[in-house]
Amino acid sequence: xxxxxxxxxDDKKETPETQLEKLQAEKGEIFDRLQRVSAEFANxxxxxxxxxxxxxxxxxxxxxxxxxxxxxxxxxTFTHLDKASDAAELTKGVRMIYDQFVSILKxxxxxxxxxxxxxxxxxxxxxxxxxxxxxxxxMVVLEEYRTGYKLGDKILRPTIVxxxxxxxxxxxxxxxEETAPDSGSENGD
Length: 189
Description:
Elements: H1 3-6, H2 16-79, H3 87-107, E1 110-112, E2 125-131, E3 141-146, E4 149-151, E5 154-157, E6 159-164, H4 176-179
Parallel strand pairs: 2-6
Antiparallel strand pairs: 1-4, 3-6, 4-5
């Protein structure tokens, strides 16, 4: 091989200054991209916080608007209270408003927790007290003191209940052999 063949052409060989310039240009491009991405992320964070707060405000508004007819019905009831001829008529009106309210809660995914007659479950029930009723299973809910509600699988508030607690059975009567005095011990020997 000749010396000319072993040498690389000058245009392919980069000087350290050229390499440095290329690296600095590349660093500048990367830094610019990083700044743009950083600014975009900051803007995204601001937008997402705003979107979340707008979404919450929208949902609040939706729920409140769905409850307003109940308020209207209470106002109608109060206006016509003096015209109600008997308590049964008034009770019927209040029951209708209650049913409407429960229906609206259901439309939002809220359900009442069924308790009476069910086995006590601390995940759904909170025991206020215990009572013993014969003929009822142990740890069965006898009475509901305050209704509980759940939203999907999440408990909004547990049902406060009175639970059946079977009375403790008396210890079995001792057999006559155990209770009869031993003939030798009567004399004190």
